[in-house]
Design goal:
It holds the Pfam family DUF3192. It comes from Pseudidiomarina insulisalsae. The chain contains 4 helices and 4 strands. By secondary structure, the protein is an alpha+beta fold. The chain has a domain of 89 residues: Beta-lactamase Inhibitory Protein, Chain:B, domain 1 (2-Layer Sandwich), CATH 3.30.1450.10. It has a 4-stranded antiparallel beta sheet with strand order 1-2-3-4. The chain is elongated, with a radius of gyration of 25 Å.
């Protein structure tokens, strides 16, 4: 009787293993190689768009970095004694290649540490330097 029970248990186990062979379980979050999934990027982009839309002019550079986290890119230039910082946060997908590029980000422009505008129009208002 024990042998029959052991054989039945083994058969069920073997069938279960053979049935699961080739199954793939996908969950949101990081993959095995530490990369974001497409769902994670959509959530991040939506969160960044919402946060940028809620920013008031004149908030500080430090406030934005502390609130929104590390930007994808950051630039700094001084023109005629005025310091301009530009933080780029990912807000839309252009190409689904796993790489974030500047055209997938919204620039936040700060003059002397205070937010003066967002987007390409604000970026174009930075005086050109020589």
């Amino acid at each position: 009787m024990k042998t029959m029970k052991a054989l039945a248990t083994g058969a069920v186990l073997l069938t279960s293993v053979m049935t699961l062979q080739g199954c793939l379980i996908v969950a949101d979050g990081y993959s095995d190689d530490g990369e974001y999934s497409a769902s994670d990027y959509r959530k991040l982009e939506e969160k960044n768009r919402r946060m940028i839309a809620a920013l008031d002019n004149q908030v500080t550079l430090d406030y934005v970095r502390n609130t929104m986290g590390t930007p994808e890119f950051a630039d700094r230039v001084t023109v005629d004694g005025e310091r301009y910082d530009v933080l780029y946060y990912r807000t839309q997908r252009v190409e689904s290649d796993g790489n974030t590029t500047r055209d997938e980000c919204t620039p936040l422009v700060f003059e002397n540490g205070k937010l003066v505008g967002t987007g390409q129009l604000a970026l174009k208002r930075i005086p050109q330097h020589d």
